[in-house]
Specification:
The structure is a single chain. By secondary structure, the protein is of the alpha+beta class. It is about 50% helix and about 15% strand. It contains eight helices and five strands. It has helices at about 1-5, 10-25, 30-35, 80-95, 120-135, 145-160, 165-170, 175-190, and strands at about 40-45, 50-55, 65-70, 105-110, 115-120. A three-stranded antiparallel β-sheet has the order 1-2-3. A two-stranded antiparallel ribbon has the order 4-5. Strand 1 and strand 2 (about 50-55) form a beta hairpin.
Length: about 190
């Protein structure tokens, strides 16, 4: 994920892609949750960018959740919030007052900025493949947007998140899923 953040591309398209990766990863989002984000679902404070979203796959009434895309003031080169900030500034510069709170968050890039046309499902899904290809990773065609969710869960587990923390963060309803993930991740990365 850090390698994706540091790719040496700074045009509008890549600024948007880096913001997508940062939000996917920090929120551990499903694709549908990312696609449903709106301009109004983003707020900023001294800690970073807060993203509100409707959890997909919720049993019963949809749950609204929130997560932080944090600032890293010591290491700007690996700061997720700075990627979101750059995107939001460029989006505001391009669309100004024409963008509304309930408009989709991610917009297609043009040579001059961003258009009112939103980024489609396939374009969002292909970001992982494109990043993997540029980074020279094996089998880039196998990289999916769900990989950011898995990477986020792996990072949380590696940094001491409990089964219950992960259930709350990722919206998992069953302890077994989280326990199985811990086991799979351990075998995959440490065996």
């Amino acid at each position: 994920v850090q390698l994706a953040m540091n790719l040496p591309f700074h045009d509008h398209e890549w600024v948007m892609r880096k913001a997508v990766v940062a939000i996917y990863y920090c929120g551990g989002l499903r694709s549908i949750e990312l696609r449903n984000l709106t301009y109004g679902s983003v707020s900023v404070d001294r800690e970073g960018y807060w993203i509100r979203f409707q959890q997909a796959k919720a049993r019963g009434p949809a749950e609204s959740r929130e997560f932080l895309v944090p600032w890293n003031r010591e290491r700007e080169d690996i700061c997720f919030a700075s990627r979101v900030k750059t995107y939001m500034e460029m989006l505001n510069a391009s669309l100004g007052s024409s963008i509304k709170e309930d408009d989709a968050l991610f917009h297609r890039s043009t040579s001059q900025g961003f258009s009112v046309q939103v980024v489609g499902e396939k374009s969002l899904a292909n970001i992982s493949k494109e990043v993997a290809k540029i980074l020279g990773l094996k089998a880039p065609e196998t990289f999916t947007s769900h990989g950011h969710r898995r990477a986020s869960a792996t990072e949380a587990a590696d940094n001491g998140a409990t089964v219950y923390d992960m259930m709350r963060m990722y919206g998992w309803k069953v302890c077994l899923i989280t326990s199985q993930l811990h086991e799979i991740l351990f075998l995959q990365f440490y065996a």
